Prior knowledge:
There is one protein chain. By secondary structure, this protein is an alpha/beta fold. The chain is 40% helix and 14% strand. Strands 3-2-1-4-5-6-7-8 form an eight-stranded mixed β-sheet, with helices on both faces. The protein has a six-stranded parallel β-sheet with strand order 11-10-9-12-13-14. Helix 1 (15-24) packs across helix 3 and helix 8 (198-229) runs parallel beside helix 11 (276-299). The chain starts with a strand and ends in a 5-residue tail after the last strand.
Amino acid sequence: MRFQKICVLGLGYIGLPTASTFASHGVQVIGVDVNPLVTDSLKQGELHIYEPGLRTVVQAAIRSGNLTIQCCPAEADAFIIAVPTPFKEEKKADLSYVISAAESIVPHLRRGNLVVLESTSPPRTTADVVQPILERSGLKAGADFHLAYSPERVLPGQILRELIENARVIGGIDAASAQAGRDMYGIFVRGEIILTDATTAEMVKVMENTYRDVNIAIANEFARLADRFGVDVWEAIALANRHPRVRILNPGPGVGGHCISVDPWFLVEAAPDLAQLIRTARTVNDTQPHFVVDLVRRALGGKLEGKRIAALGLSYKPDVDDLRESPAIEICHLLQAAGAEVWAHEPFKPDAQVTGVKTAAVLGEILDEADALLLLVGHSKLRGLDPVELAQLTKARVVVDCVNAWDEKNWTHNGFHVYRLGVGF
C-alpha cells in the first residue's frame, strides 16, 4: 500500500515524534490533539515537551508544509492513535482517550484505510474495544479497512533515533492488516519489522515493561535488605554482576513514567488470579518512595517535622523532563505529609509546577535554608555538582543520595554526612 496522508491522533511523547518523522520523509501528516495549549504552541513553533533534537525536526516539518496541526482528524489514508492510557485510582486501565480517538475517526473512515493503535493497552483492546467502535462507520475491519496494533518501543532521550532504528512489531487483526502496517512504517523504519496478530503485539508491549518492572523490584528489595543487614548494596550488586549469568539492575527511589509503572497493572487487571508475581513487583516499586522517606527521617535523627528539605530532581528518570508517575514527586508529597517543608528543583523543567510542592527554577533558591539535600534523580547536571561549591550555598550538611551519584568520600571530606539508598547505617 501507498500512504500519501497520515493522521496522527495525540501529539505527546510518541505521537509528535512519529508525526514529524513521517513528515520529514515526505508524507503529508495531520497532527491532531484535543488540547488547545498543545496545538496553539505547535502552530507557533514551540514544543510542550522536551526531547533532544525534536524541536528542529518538528519546526522543519511544519515549515515544509508536510505537517499541519489541528484539533480534529480529517480524511487520510491511515490513522495512528497515540493517546495516553493512564490507569484509574483502582489500578484499572483508563481507555477513555483511546475510545474518544477511535470515535473521532469514524466519520472520516473510508474503504482501504489503515488504523493503527499505538497506545499501550491491555491485551484485546484492539479487537474488543477499537474494532467495534470503528465498525460503527458501516465498514468491516479486515474486509473494508485494515486495523492493527503497533507498540512504541523507544527510550525517552533517544526517541528520534530509536523510532527509526528499533525493531517494530506490527500485529494485525488479519494478515493483510499487518502487511499494511508494514508498508506504512516501512516509510522510515530501518529496524526489522516483525508481523504478528494484534493481541500478541499488545501482549509483547506489556510483557517488555513488566519484565523491567519485576527486575527493578528485586533490585529495590535488595536495597532494603542491604540497609537492614548493614551492607552496601551498590558494592554487592557490582560483585554479583561479575557472575556471567547475573545482571542485577540498580535500585532507586521508585519506578515512574507512563510505561513501566503503569503497564504491569494491565496484566493484573486482565488476569488477577494469575499475575501474582507481577502484582507483588508492582507493590514493591510503588512502596519504594515510603522507604526513601523513612531513610530521610533516619538521616535527620528520626524527625521530619519542621525540617526543610531540598529535593533535587522531579522527573521519573535522568536527563528527561517527563514528570509522569514520578516517584520523586510522590516522595515530596510524602515528606510534606510527614511535616517536612520541601523545596524542589528540576533542571530539565525549571518552570515545573507540581501541586503541593514548592519549586524553584534556580537550584540555589532551594538550598539556602535547607536542612538536608535529597538527590532523587541522577541527572547529569546534578551528578556533577561540586560539594565544595554547595558547602558555600547551604547550611545543610545532611545528604541523602537515592541514586548513588555522588562520591561519598569526596562529600564527606567537604563536611557533609552522606546517607545512600541501600547502604545500612
